[in-house]
Amino acid sequence: MAPQVVDEATRRLPGQQQPKAAARDAPDATDAPAPPPQPDRTEPELLIAASVLLADAALTARQAGAELAGALGSRRLGLEALRRPAWALGAAFSCAKALTSPAGLGFGANGGLFGELARIAGSMTYRRPAQVAMAVDAFALRIKAAAAAHPNLDAPAARRLTDAMVAGHRIEALRALHGLVERLGITRALTTVSPVMMELLALLGLLDENPVNDDFSWVTLAGGVPTTDPFLGLPSSLIGYFNPGPGRAERTEPDAILANVLATSRNDVVSYVNDIGALGNHGLALLRRVRCADGADRYVLLLPGTSFALLSNSTPQDLIGAFDGLLRTDTTYTRAARNLLERAGVPAGTDLMIVGHSLGGLTAMNLASDPEFAATYRLTHVIAVGSPIDGKRPADHTTRVVNLANKHDVIPTLDGRGPASPHDIPADWVELTWLDESYDYPLSHAPQAYSDSLRGPMAHHRERVNALIRAYDGEITGNQPYMLRDK
Questions:
Q1: Is residue 472 within 8 Å of 267, Cβ to Cβ?
Q2: Does residue 108 register a pLDDT over 70?
Q3: Which residues pair with 481 in a beta bridge?
């Protein structure tokens, strides 16, 4: 299928337009200026807008449940019970009724010792509080909105899976997933559901019996970056425990293939992506020194992505490092990259651009979000290719962030901001997205796939990025590979 461009428009709630009948009945309707015409909104935009309203209502109901549960277990209520037992009994009864009644919050206690015990009991007995019901409906609307731009999601086999997840029928969902894989194969099935992967994981967390993984779902609903895993609810600190290395960088020499690629390198986003592809994902990174047209020496750091061969290996580019980088900012990969710059003798205050693919782009943003790093080097640009970076923010507001993402790639959506998410990125970021269905995941995530798109139908994106990094045009005076180690 030929690739196509999908422009990412800023999504906002639809304006509240005054009904025409009410305007005619108003006394000064003939004198008042006509309101500006409201643009027609598409069905997906309306679905997303409705999901925002439901999400806000769900989060508000959850907060109300926490406050009511806190009131029931508060010291003040106990003291008042000694002074005014009838009043305290009535207040406790009203709180309990609001928390448990189907017409109220429907067993919506949470927060604090009492609230968490009640929530755990409700979760294990399949109670569905009002906030959970509204959150599920919000995720269901997001999935329906995504199906408009991704017709494969609306196919019967995929819809059977999403409907089962929304209904909380896990056995049926497993059967539907098995049927989808049997029909399409594992790569096409994964690619089909990738636009709503975070929504499906959030639904799993909300509707299963495990009470400790719900935070993943609520953070996803609110548009934040989850700090727990969606299955067991393990916190990021525990994941960091498995990735404790201080990070180390050692100079190394390029092999023949890498040397040939580097010999033709230049200041071009496609060239950088090709260089990253040649570096591989077995621990290599590259530091480039450029004597620029204005006579200044600037540096470019190239950071490859994850090796999927093992859960953990001796380099920062492993799956444990990927989870750690998504949930935290101080990781083995960031420490190794800092060690690389120190060993290379890059002067403080030097202009630096970091280009990273996948975990490499995530690590670039983690470095950018470190105030100490931003104070040491003038990080002018971060270019992330196929990376889930939307929850990260640079410490220096002058750092230009460029995010390149193929909507047929699963990985960029792992930050919680998928195609149907209502949450936006900062206005000064440059986000360039497209839909290239030439490859299924995982091939759609490979550097080569991004290079093909940017050299071909997305050449206008290539030109735009190259215009942003023109200050790095000049003569390459150094190309030094480094091997990064955990310790």
A1: yes
A2: yes
A3: 286
